[in-house]
């Protein structure tokens, strides 16, 4: 069976052109999070290889590790990243050629300044790091609060005069809550740009709007002449800087293009009015099993845990209703014929992904972005593991010693001490299920450990068998592999009653952690994230955690999930975004860089809680970690064992 996902890179170029033709401003395509699950390098290459007069003049990603990976893959367009780790290696960031950096706080500015040498004598601006000051105009995520703008800009100007940075841009991001709220953000942004100019900065690039705002508010992309008042000479002279080389200063107003690039229309069945083409196609075979019809795709591939009345067509045009979505398989109920045929999950029609999103009560780009784990196995042009020193902390720590202890427990431990009843039982107790890249634990490491204990391997889908074979692991195709084949991971209750020999069999053999990358005090009334679904009811402190639905936190946990910051349990507030969530730190004394525990381990929520909040199966929680999450292995040395 061939890989079920196809990416149409011509459609990327088509969608870029359609959008660029409709919007009277330079367009910055956003290729963060593996290009929303489509493969970051491949999408960037498609855009970079357009004819010189048509290709975008900048690409955007979230963090510096993503930018590094694009450079390493030979992408030569200017890049921008705006989500900076507290432990970022700013020297290394500065070494990435033509990388613009979004700066959200004085702290980040100071760190960058520290890494940037003062230029003696005449300042060569091309040698300075290009900075885009990120203003929080209401979204409550990253970006500086309005009360900090003046000092941030003044400090930036000082550094600019020393030739250490160049303020190349001012940026913000819109919440899309209502026309009035968006207008308030635009007003705040105007104040910010006017202040920057008054202080003496001369950013080339001003950008606020993403796909929807760019289409909905044409005036977002008109430079308001008032922003570029022609007193620039006077104010620049007052600021004692290079006014002479910019007599007719005029910034360029750009827009950032994300979802429409991928053929996704947020307003469907109304529409942005663009002729967008679908980019991601997902097809798979329907197979009959135990008088049911199933497809070998499930939550571990990124499908949502529940869909309400979702109809799909097969290749013969027959309709099927999606039933239960399990970890690796989903059931299908035939509405017309029952002849098995290839199922078109999405991609043949622009509205397909929207149908999934509607049925799963989410947004279309969460659907494509979370398919990333499937791409992990079969898309060579995806971004490689995050470059150390550049990526924010997003770590899946795997306890190989705990896994080894369970494997050493052998048949007895795996079967509650009972004698294995049948030959098949005995067989199962000696095998490990390595589906979905060992459910995110990394098939190669788990297989290595399993071999040391004389185990053999199974996988629940044909696709997994092939992906394992490609890395030299021989796994038997066993779609019905039961929970006893997954005991080593510690997914818990699914393996009812198991584990007398190993004790903590219900405990996950891994944990997910991150860091606070920004902390800010806000007033009562401060809203957070898209749609302003949460507002502070008292003055409080907000923390920014660089994990979103592309990484680990599905949108479905909205309003429920808690995590632990420095050991204190705090709620995740506001909508989960692709790259980040906000936590309400209350009056706890918190600082940038503090550790954040999400699930597992001694400090995080239990996997069971996380499953209740997200609706995911335990196996899907670990299997769907995105490619920006690094795996860290603890222990696992089994020398001396046969
Ligand atoms: C993801 C992102 C975008 C792209 O948004 P779309 O709605 O997908 O167009 C733009 N700006 C920022 C800051 C983002 O994080």
TrEMBL record:
CC cofactor: pyridoxal 5'-phosphate
Entry keyword set: Isomerase, Pyridoxal phosphate
Start and end residues of each Alanine racemase C-terminal domain: 509-634
A Pfam family: Ala_racemase_C
InterPro entries: Ala_racemase, Ala_racemase/Decarboxylase_C, Ala_racemase_C, Ala_racemase_N, Ala_racemase_pyridoxalP-BS, PLP-binding_barrel
Highest taxon above the source species: Bacteria
Protein name per its UniProtKB record: Alanine racemase C-terminal domain-containing protein
Upper classification of the organism: Bacteria, Bacillati, Actinomycetota, Actinomycetes, Micrococcales
């Amino acid at each position: 069976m061939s890989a079920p996902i196809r990416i149409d890179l011509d459609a990327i170029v088509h969608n870029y052109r359609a959008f660029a033709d409709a919007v009277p401003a330079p367009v910055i395509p956003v290729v963060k999070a593996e290009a929303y699950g489509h493969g970051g390098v491949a999408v960037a290459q498609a855009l970079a290889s357009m004819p010189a007069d048509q290709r975008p003049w900048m690409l955007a990603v979230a963090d510096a590790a993503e930018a590094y990976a694009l450079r390493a893959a030979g992408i030569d367009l200017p890049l921008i990243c705006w989500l900076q780790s507290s432990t970022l290696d700013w020297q290394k960031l500065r070494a990435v050629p033509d990388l613009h950096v979004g700066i959200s706080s004085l702290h980040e500015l100071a760190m960058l300044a520290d890494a940037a040498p003062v230029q003696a004598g005449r300042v060569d601006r091309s040698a300075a790091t290009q900075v885009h000051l990120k203003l929080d105009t209401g979204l409550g995520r990253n970006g500086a609060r309005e009360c900090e703008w003046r000092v941030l800009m003044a400090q930036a100007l000082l550094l600019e005069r020393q030739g250490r940075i160049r303020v190349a841009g001012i940026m913000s991001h819109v919440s899309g809550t209502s026309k009035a709220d968006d207008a308030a953000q635009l007003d705040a942004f105007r104040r910010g740009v006017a202040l920057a100019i008054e202080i003496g900065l001369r950013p080339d690039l001003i950008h606020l709007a993403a796909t929807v705002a760019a289409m909905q508010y044409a005036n977002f992309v008109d430079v308001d002449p008032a922003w570029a008042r022609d007193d620039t000479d006077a104010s620049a002279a007052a600021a004692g800087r290079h006014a002479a080389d910019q007599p007719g200063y005029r910034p360029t107003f750009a827009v950032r293009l994300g979802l429409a690039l991928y053929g996704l229309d947020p307003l469907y069945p109304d529409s942005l009015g663009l002729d967008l083409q679908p980019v991601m196609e997902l097809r798979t075979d329907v197979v009959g099993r135990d008088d049911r019809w199933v497809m070998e795709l499930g939550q571990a591939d990124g499908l949502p845990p529940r869909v309400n009345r979702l109809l799909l067509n097969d290749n013969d045009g027959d309709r099927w209703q999606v039933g239960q979505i399990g970890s690796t398989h989903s059931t299908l109920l035939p509405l017309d014929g029952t002849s098995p045929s290839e199922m078109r999950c999405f991609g043949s029609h622009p509205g397909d992904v929207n149908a999934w999103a509607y049925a799963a009560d989410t947004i279309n780009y969460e659907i494509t972005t979370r398919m990333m784990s499937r791409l992990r196995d079969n898309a060579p042009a995806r971004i490689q593991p995050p470059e150390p020193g550049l990526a924010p902390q997003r770590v899946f720590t795997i306890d190989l010693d705990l896994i080894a202890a369970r494997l050493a427990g052998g048949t007895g431990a795996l079967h509650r001490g009972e004698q294995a009843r049948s030959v098949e039982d005995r067989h199962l107790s000696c095998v490990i299920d390595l589906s979905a890249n060992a459910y995110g634990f990394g098939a190669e490491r788990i297989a290595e450990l399993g071999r040391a204990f004389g185990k053999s391997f199974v996988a629940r889908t044909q696709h997994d068998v092939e992906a394992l074979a490609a890395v030299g692991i021989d796994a038997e195709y066993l779609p019905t592999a039961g929970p006893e084949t997954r005991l080593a991971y510690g997914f818990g209750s699914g393996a009812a009653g198991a584990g007398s020999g190993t004790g903590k069999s219900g405990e996950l053999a891994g944990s997910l952690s991150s860091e606070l990358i920004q902390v800010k005090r806000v007033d009562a009334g401060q809203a957070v994230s898209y749609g302003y679904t949460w507002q502070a009811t008292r003055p409080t402190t907000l923390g920014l955690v660089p994990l979103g639905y592309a990484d680990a936190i599905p949108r479905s946990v909205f309003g429920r999930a808690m995590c632990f910051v420095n050991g204190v349990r705090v709620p995740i507030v506001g909508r989960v975004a692709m790259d980040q969530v906000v936590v309400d730190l209350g009056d706890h004394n918190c600082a940038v860089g503090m550790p954040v525990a999400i699930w597992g381990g001694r400090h995080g929520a239990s996997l069971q809680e996380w499953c209740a909040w997200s609706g995911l199966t335990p196996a899907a929680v670990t299997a769907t970690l995105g490619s920006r999450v690094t795996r860290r292995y603890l222990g696992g040395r089994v020398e001396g064992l046969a």
